[in-house]
Fold each of these.
Amino acid sequence: MQSLERALGRERVISTPDELIAYEFDATIERGMPQAVVFPESTEQVAAAVRVAHRAGVPVIPRGAGTGLSGGAVAAAGGVVVALTRMKRVLKIDVVDRVAVVEPGVVNIDLSRAAAPYGLYYAPDPSSQRACTIGGNVAENAGGPHCLAMGTTTNHVLGLELVLADGEVIEVGGHSRDVAGYDLTGAFVGSEGTLAIATKIIVRLSRIPEATRTLLAIFDQIDDASGAVSAIIAAGMVPSALEMMDRNIIRAVEPVLRCGYPLDAEAVLLIEVDGLEEDTVEQAEAIDAICRRHGAREVRLAREAADRELLWAGRKSSISALGRLYPNYYVLDGVVPRTRLPDVLRQVYAVAGRYGLAVANVFHAGDGNLHPNLLFDEREPGVTAKVLDAGAEIMRLCVDAGGSITGEHGVGVEKRDFMAWLFSGDDLYAMSRLKTAFKAGEDFNPCKAFPTHAGCGEVTQAQVRRTAAAIGPDLYV
Amino acid sequence: MPQTADAHGLREDIARCVHCGFCLQACPTYLQLGKETDSPRGRIALIEAMSSGRAAPGAPPLLGHLDLCLQCRACETACPSGVPFGRIMETARGNVMEGAAAPLAWRLRAAALRQVLPHRRRIAAAMALLRGYQRSPLRRVLRRTGVLGRLPRPLRAAEASLPVLPREPFAAPPQPPGLTRTVAMLRGCVMPHLYPRTHDATVRVLNRLGYRVVFPEQEVCCGALSLHAGDRQQARALARRNIDAFLEAEIEAIVVNSAGCGSTMKEYGALLHDDPAYRERAARFAAMTRDVLEFVVAETLPALGEVPVAVTYQDSCHLVHAQKVTQAPRALLRAIPGIELRELAAPDRCCGSAGLYSLVQPAMSARLLADKMDDVRATGANVVATANPGCMMQLEAGLRQRGIEARVVHVIELLDEAMQAAGGAAP
């Protein structure tokens, strides 16, 4: 600790056990106590902190805003948390090239705000975009409602400055399209802090569309809503967003935000189209018709920007509003082929019902990216184990349906033992070799992404491992 | 004191937090420091640890983080789960104060408040002294000789931030005859001495709207400062006295032009919930309390004259975040001909005043004020309007230090100016 204070200055280090309690968690139910948290303000200071940890042989855990939903920023095996919240400058906005250079602690929405005067924005928009950082988005390859048309974070990152585990600083990618050599930028995005720490990020900016139309379709049957989703996609349309919220989500959100989701509806779809004015009018009309054909009792079109913002405020606050229903949520991030959506959704409710758990579903329907939230009170004895068991079953459902265990939240601590359902030992070994190429040993964000070794002794983890093993033999897809 | 009920309430309030982090970017101290320990989510974790015994309740680093909280409640506005952060912080500070490990500084602060707040005469005497000092050559001498620099920090900060007091404190003005409806108005502790003009404007506006304004003689401090300092017992005692004083009068509403006081008065119901003798009247008192802007915007305004100024509006935290009054001040400003409303970059972010905060946390307060002044300057406005005396004082100090040519007013003063500009006496 003293060497950290020497390297960074006392004001940039927290190491008293009482204060570290504030760094024990992120937005999940995972817990892990670090030995220190550092607050570097430059690439050099990040490198200095990493070098100290490296020499001392203690884990390094990069952290942005700690809004992640897979436990990625939790110090699962102790160590030094490198909080990048003070590196929050937008270094450059190149209007002609439509590129921005940012430090990792820049908050997602602040980048779009900075680019707005030039008619530009940063497209990936996780629900936590008011709080989460670009660095964290890069680590988790974050998605968001508008990734249906725009792609996830990886489609928007062009280059990086990285601090490696031994403190060396390298640059990968650049300002423009560049396919010479290995795509190390691509390899880094989504690596969940296990390879290096990004200290500068070059991202693509997108043009703010000329017109945007937002619709809210209201359904009395959840199956009808799923059917409408499939029909919209089958009609060859690519809305910029296609989101579903079920009854429990509406119950959590509507009483406070008053965004106009009817409390008696079984599900609502939030659908957005953008592009040229005439096109959006046409598309909105077509979508309206499809929804009604599939049983929507009402379809509303947002008239003004304020209405649109309100509809989105509800969607983006959904998971964070669940505290109104239960003290804890366990949010899953399964992906299924869109055609399997109605079927898998029915099974999700069935699994939750079997375990006697409440579940709230909010998800990127257009992507087939489900977010069932199992709701509980962790103070109730035995309930956490039950929740994790149910969660594992739901994950297995997604994998069996030909999908995956994560669409945008990352594997983190939470889902790493499900990786064996998707990848063989050889696959995982091949992936772990990439760590070696980046000189990142076991101490770089340990216990994340890989179904690894003992020593990551979190209670919730042990439970997941047991459940994952019990559910079935490895399945390779 | 029903400690167990409070402990249970605290646990349930904390359980609402799903630690999603949506509050982080709303928190002024987190924005300055980037540390979870100085964020709402982190403070809740620290409070939870103290209340469950995981961390020592009196641990100095933890209390420092509680102390650095402005209690501006911006996190409540940002929180989709409705975590009552203000109540959590008040309960936590209260538990520390009532426990064995209460730090000396906290005890002294609470004791000092106890000596002053219940006694309007003592406040008046202190203000008279201050008025004399400000107008005497002594101040200049002290400044020149550097004696001021050797004062304890809170005193130095207070000396620098206090505006020059007007010659005469507020006195209830004669009101036009024939007014058929009656409201009571809270005068407050310092406002009659610092901003008598705001009170005068408030009374004139209410008169024009047809209300006679009464000032209950037995009024005391609203209790906000005690409550924020963790002295719930004192806050309750003050609340009881105000309830007795105000509910005796035949009034339609209790009007307040200090957002901080109004916020606490609206919470009297919760504060005295466990007091069977006062519970009902406390709830009635709370339901009758209205911020003056909220009260006025619901009335039919007479014709307004022109007030040709460029105004920027700083939301007072306890109006926007605690009372959720956002639109009323803006609607009133827009209703006044000639006013051009220029929004600040972050109008609902605390200016660093926060009750006693600018005195006990001068460094953080100054950082917040500096950012606020950058924002004010960027608007180019020549009037900064707000809704609370603390904010007015802080903003005035900021403009003075930075040499920005603008005046600070309470929104109600602009409305009064507009009414006067329209001509015609009060009915």
Amino acid sequence: MNLELSDEQRLLAETARAFVDRHGDDDAWPTMCDAGWPALLIPEEHGGAGAGLLDLALVCEALGRGPIGSPLIATGVLAALSIALAGTHEQQDRWLPALATGTTIGTLAVLEPGMRDEWDEPRMSGADRLSGTKILVPWATRADVIVVVTVDGLRLVEMASANVQIDEHAGLDGDPLAAVTFDSTVAESLGTGDGAVTVAVVLDYAAVASMAYAIGAAERALELTVQHAKDREQFGRAIGSFQAVAHRCAEMRAEIDACRYLAYRAAWALEHATAPSEAVTTAKSYANEALRRVFLHAHQVHGAMGFTTEHPLHRFTQCAKAFELSYGGTARHRDRLATAMGLGRRA
Amino acid sequence: MDFAFTDDEETFRTELRAFLDSEVPDWWRGMFVDDERAMPFTRELCSKLAGRGWLTMAWPPEHGGSGASVWKQAIVREEMWAREEPRGPQYMNLNYIGPLIMRFGSPDQQARFLPSMARGEVIWCQGFSEPDAGSDLASLITRAEDRGDHFVVNGQKIWTSYADAPADWCLLLVRTDPAAPKHRGISILLVDMTTPGITVRPIDTMAGPHEFNEVFLDDVIVPRDCLLGEQDHGWDLVVAGLTFERVGIARYARAGRVIELLVEYVNDAGLGDDPIVRDRLADLYARYEAAKVLNYRAISMQAAGEVPTIEASVARIHNTQLEQAVGHVGLELLGPAGQLRAGDRWAPLRGEIHRYWTRNIPSTLAGGSLEIQKNIVAQRGLGLPREP
């Protein structure tokens, strides 16, 4: 066992962090593409970097510190991994190199009205034509290609030529989300089979990447909170010298550390362990709840100022909530974890 | 990063488990029980472990160890703590009393004290807390007067586990210079517990007998060659020792074992499909995994030659609250019969969960309270100002 990052990973994390500190709110996507980040998970034979999920997670963690929104997870995980896992050679050759450079933006459409969450059964069906609405699709507004989950398998819709209506949701300040309505829209099968195994793997990867992003946001929120606790004086002294305040900060540190190492382990497990989903679902079960506590503390210490949009805290709070509500809530993951623990198993 | 134990480590764990399965008797419930068999059993087991080279395996060879990796040491701690620490009090020798002597002791002290620890033949206790020095440990007043070739010790210690085992030796914190600021003027003495003037009084607790003692010291004469480290500079040793202790106990391992017992219990009771039961147990399990991975982070730092401080406190913050949560939720899952103690014929799981809950009521106090751990994280980790 060794929980230290490699020298290359440290360098990658530092590079990503320096990038985030430099960029602020600009459209950072072209620079991210130049850095090769959309290519991280894509196999080398398709123009990717063939790196690991932990590498991508380190980049996502740095981005969360901005927070810098980008179609990195949509393109580099949701679309690229779906196509890499399920696509035919032809489909891989066609899409993966373009997704790797980031010149093509992709995403995955899973949710439909009435579905409880991403693990619920899809309703949409269809072979070479799709009709109906997918909701909460990340980055659909800018996507060139959308992988669509249907009961009959995965479908690939090329946006340029397709008859698709996109309505952006009013949501949290995280990834832009949209409702995507198909009306007898031309689609092609992505590989064969029902795609359920692929979707499960892709959701696990995306859960870890988005967790890393939320952890970066939480870390930045802790830094803001500690700074505020040092600077803000009441009763003639810095409020951080009151244990009631200091202990909230310490709890934030303890919770973020737990989330971070559970996330790193989940990233490792997806590529090395025999039962990787258990590590992912453990991390998600924990982090969903822990990040709530982290942001309750952050807001309490910041006082009313943290609730204003003049102060940056609200952006990190929204990132964390968007993470919690995506890729499975606490109840879903605890139920999955309970099964992995052997609950309900008959002797 | 690599989150897996090596094949060699896994093989070792399997061997150790097989050994413990055959050696630890069914009646063993840890040290804090009214059972005369407990103490002789731990002594016997420790000498068997020593015979296999498993007792002080992580110690350097010159002190009777085999220089095993910190990960093998972690495996030993996990397997022992999951079985309620069949090494009894001697885990303290291995984890920090021995290492403190290795780091700060004279060659004579090392030659005198370490071999008996390595053979598993000696019981040590730790005289730290006093009635008026708990979280504010540095305000301790047990006095050791310097009389040249010896010290004369007067005072009182409390919450001293294993003193009535009986312990052979005590790592005793004393004040040698009452005029110095409180963190200065403290020294550590290695005290023979058979010295005249030492009185041990057991304190009964909710968890039963033998958990805690008071130790009274009246004109106890301690030779100068039993002073550990520099006189008046014992606080530095305390800080080092407490850091060893925070990563020295695999508290999460017993919590994990209790969660397994609960899973079996609810499955047998036909509650394994109950959504609320599943939710409660999965929550505990996620918290167990969080505590475990944070302990592994601290151990990984040790493996890299670093000393975990903040990281040790963070791990402990998780460990101790996990223990309490597992106790509370465990009893809730047993329902009204959770009230029944070990020994009652209707007690579910032979009263194991009841005992686990009880004995972890003070777990957020031992070895530096939860509040002290949070102070360490806030002040040393985050740079927040001290309370004036």
